[in-house]
Amino acid sequence: MKDIFILGIESSCDETSMAIIKNGKECVSLTIATQMEIHAKYGGVVPEVASRMHTESITLVLEETLKKANMKIQDLDAIAVTYAPGLVGSLLIGIECAKTLSYLFDIPLIKVNHIAGHIYANNLTNPINYPSLALIVSGGHSDLVIMKKDYDFQVLGKTLDDAIGEAYDKVARVLGLNYPGGPNVEKLAKKGKNFYNLPIPLLDDDSYNFSFSGLKSSVINLVNNYKMKNIKINKSDLACSFQTVAIKSIIKKVELALKNYNLKNLIVAGGVSANSFLREELNNLVKKYDVNLSVPDIIYCTDNAAMIGAAAYPLFLKKEFSDFSLNPQSRLEIF
Ligand code: KG4
Ligand code: ZN
Fold it and tell me: What is the per-residue pLDDT across 198-256, written as a single tens digit (0 to 9) for each?
């Protein structure tokens, strides 16, 4: 069969990214223009600023991505773009670019859900084996899902409140760390001990759900109480205590699902999968149950367009193409 080259476009938040993916699993070229430094000044992503920055960088990102691959637009078999969920104004820039290229060069257009992108990022590192248990841990998601085949999602559990990445970001803020919080909390936690006694969320054996808002509030309350009493906080210890409890509670539910469903493949997706403590704990867990673990390479864990090109490949094979009425959707979930 002829090799299939898909251009992936991702602009759902604060990264303008494009990639060319060969046969759904090989990244030929990847460009990520991050706006992180600009948003860090405001302590989080400012949607209006994000859209403007996408507009400024999108053509440069396209040129760079084609140049690195030594390819022309005419060499592409499909244009894939994130259409949901995300910031509408940001998504729109990527979608308009994808539609324009598709129309001008008569190349099929494929819409990709951002979370499916995170899941299929695994194919760029280790091809996904089915059935797999998928753990999705990002800024907006904490889910446990069984996948028996491509685009087949049986949801076991979700977060009842905050997503884990969101909790990391809020804890970072109360500890006075810069945006994006997750990696900075992780760095600080490495220097600390699990000293503070924080409540462990949802340890029940009856559900696969998560909850992080109680844990987040405990950290905020502890910081405020100590401040009021003029007691100094050891920030590294607090970061470590938060991280230990948050990750242990995830491991507990992953273990429960692996045991109860006797699954032998585990894949991890989303920004928090870049966390080395989570990766370490998952490694220990899979050894115990003789499970095959796949975590994307760090570059494919956080937002990037390679994952969008990878997620588009099964849709390309099924000829699931979009027309030019495609619009962004801020909250649409795949499961
Ligand atoms: O998947 P992602 O790039 O964007 C969403 O689709 O939400 O995830 C971003 C989230 C942020 O909350 C960020 O703080 C968190 O992932 N994150 C981390 C790490 N790297 C990114 N959290 C903990 N440890 C990390 N190393
Ligand atoms: Zn993401």
Answer: 988 877 788 999 999 999 999 999 999 999 999 999 999 999 999 999 999 999 999 99
**Ligand 1 pocket, residue 89 CB under 6 Å:** no
Ligand 1 touching residue 169 (CB < 6 A): yes
> How far, in Å, CA of 202 to CA of 118, rounded?
25
Residues 140, 112 within the same domain? no
296 lines ligand 1 (CB under 6 A): no
What is the domain range of residue 254?
Answer: 129-295
Give, in order, the Cα–Cα distances in Å from 133 to each of 18, 73, 136, 191, 305.
28, 36, 10, 32, 23
Residues 280 and 72: their CA atoms lie apart, in Å, by 41
3-class DSSP assignment, residue 246: helix
**37-69 CB burial, b ≥16 within 10 A, e <16:** eebeeeeebbeebbbbbbbebbeebbebbbeeb
Burial of 285: CB neighbours in 10 Å, binned 0-12, 13-18, 19+? middle
pTM, rounded to two decimals: 0.96
**Residue 323 placed within a domain:** no
SS3 93: helix
Query: Where residue 90 sits, what CATH number does that domain have?
Result: 3.30.420.40
Residues 147 and 250 in one domain: yes
For residues 113 and 335, what is the distance between their CA atoms, to the nearest angstrom?
Answer: 11
User: Has residue 185 been placed in a domain?
Assistant: yes
Tokens of 202: 């949802």
Residue 271 CA, ligand 2 centroid: distance in Å: 6
**154 with 281, same domain?**
yes
- Which ligand gives the minimal distance to the CA of 296? 1
- Is any atom of ligand 1 closer than 6 Å to the C-beta of 328? no
Q: Is residue 250 part of a domain?
A: yes
The alpha carbon of 168 and the centre of ligand 1 are apart by a number of angstroms equal to: 8
pLDDT of amino acid 333: 85
